[in-house]
């Protein structure tokens, strides 16, 4: 097993673990503790984002002194133990404390992405993030389906046990790599000293990074405002209460992303409009607005349009980060970007709870659609995302995307990770 393959497998299990409950927290808290407050669910998902956004920079700093895979062994073990302890949490307060600590230590596995990218030559970056895309989307679909089925057939406690199992598998893979000597050490003595003093950014580089961060914040807020209560909205709008089917509908964006990757490989060069950022922002707004209509077929159509747009935009945003950064600064700049991504998810999670409680679930889709239009305006006025890819259409390999397609799943889906 190569290091690249091992990290792809670890990422898959991380995403599966994070995806098991992310679509079902309203049902989880009602079944486990009898809580039905939309504000509570929104606050919980927001708190996960706070935990990740605060801790990832800390783990990025620690990784300057400790090899990343050695670090992940201990953090994933701690995450699994905390998750198992949460099974017996007698009240919501104890559950909050245990799971927030879990997500704080679990956030370290996001470092696997910049770690891998540092070890890969530049001409392999598109291939690597493409492989990650396929693995992550399939894992997200599988995790959502398993979560729905597990909640329905086994109950909330078993879902937590399944989440812990994913963390333990990640730890086991790290131990395997270390024991077989397959870890490529990044922190040799000279580089260790260099990482203590990261190189200064070029003139204008920080402003460029902050502009991209603002764009990601607005995009993530708009894209994930609808996520915390989608499964509940689907069930109340359609009258379909089958949890397994609900999980599959929730995973439609991931299914669409996998189909988009297959189509890209099949067709080769896609038409310029298929990957144009501003057109996809408008398409995403339309897809979100369609889901506000309580019609089964319009929700499904909107979900598909939304999935296509989100996939293309995440590709462009994530690849852009590695175009404006340098290998020595990947971890640092990734933690900055991830902070703003999580801030967007944090605002969307808090906002979703209040919007649902005050205005109803359909308004989350309409507000998210407006947010997508605001993102379109900001990109047009101050960034122009497509200009960093050599043409009006993104010029990437057949399967470009990044860990955040899932991360956020922890970060943006309720764990270090995106929908």
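Sequence proposed for the structure above (419 residues):
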């Amino acid at each position: 097993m190569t290091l690249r393959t091992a990290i792809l497998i670890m990422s898959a299990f991380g995403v599966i673990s994070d995806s098991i409950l992310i679509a079902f927290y309203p049902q989880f808290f009602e079944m486990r503790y009898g809580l039905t407050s939309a504000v509570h669910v929104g606050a919980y998902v927001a708190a996960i984002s706070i935990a990740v956004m605060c801790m990832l920079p800390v783990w990025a700093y620690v990784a300057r002194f400790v090899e990343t895979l050695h670090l992940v062994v201990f953090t994933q073990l701690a995450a699994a133990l905390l998750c198992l302890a949460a099974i017996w949490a007698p009240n919501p307060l104890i559950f909050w404390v245990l799971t927030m600590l879990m997500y704080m230590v679990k956030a370290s596995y996001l470092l696997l992405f910049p770690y891998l990218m540092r070890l890969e030559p530049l001409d392999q970056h598109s291939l690597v993030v493409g492989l990650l895309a396929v693995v992550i989307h399939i894992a997200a679909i599988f995790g959502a389906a398993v979560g729905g089925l597990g909640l329905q057939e086994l109950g909330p406690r078993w879902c937590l046990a399944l989440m812990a199992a994913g963390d333990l598998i990640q730890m086991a893979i790290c131990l395997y790599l270390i024991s077989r000597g397959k870890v490529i050490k990044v922190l040799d003595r000279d580089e260790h000293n260099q990482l203590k003093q990261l190189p200064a950014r070029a003139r204008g580089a920080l402003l460029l990074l902050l502009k991209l961060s603002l764009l990601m914040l607005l995009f993530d807020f708009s894209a994930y405002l609808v996520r915390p209560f989608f499964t509940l909205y689907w069930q109340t709008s359609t009258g379909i209460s089958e949890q397994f089917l609900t999980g599959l509908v929730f995973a439609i964006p991931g299914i669409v992303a996998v189909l988009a990757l297959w189509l890209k490989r099949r067709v080769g060069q896609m038409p310029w409009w298929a990957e144009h950022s501003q057109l996809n922002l408008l398409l995403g707004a339309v897809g979100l607005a369609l889901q506000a209509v309580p019609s089964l077929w319009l929700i499904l159509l909107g979900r598909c349009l939304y999935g296509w747009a989100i996939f293309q935009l995440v590709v462009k945003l994530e690849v852009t980060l590695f175009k404006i950064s340098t290998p020595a600064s990947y971890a640092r700049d990734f933690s900055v970007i991830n902070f703003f991504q999580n801030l967007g998810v944090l605002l969307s999670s808090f906002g979703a709870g209040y919007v649902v409680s005050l205005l109803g679930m359909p308004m989350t889709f309409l507000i998210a659609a407006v947010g997508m239009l605001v993102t379109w305006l900001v990109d047009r006025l101050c960034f122009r995302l497509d200009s960093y890819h050599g043409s009006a259409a993104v010029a990437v390999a057949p399967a470009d995307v990044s860990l955040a397609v899932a991360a956020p799943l922890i970060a943006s889906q309720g764990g270090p990770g995106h929908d």
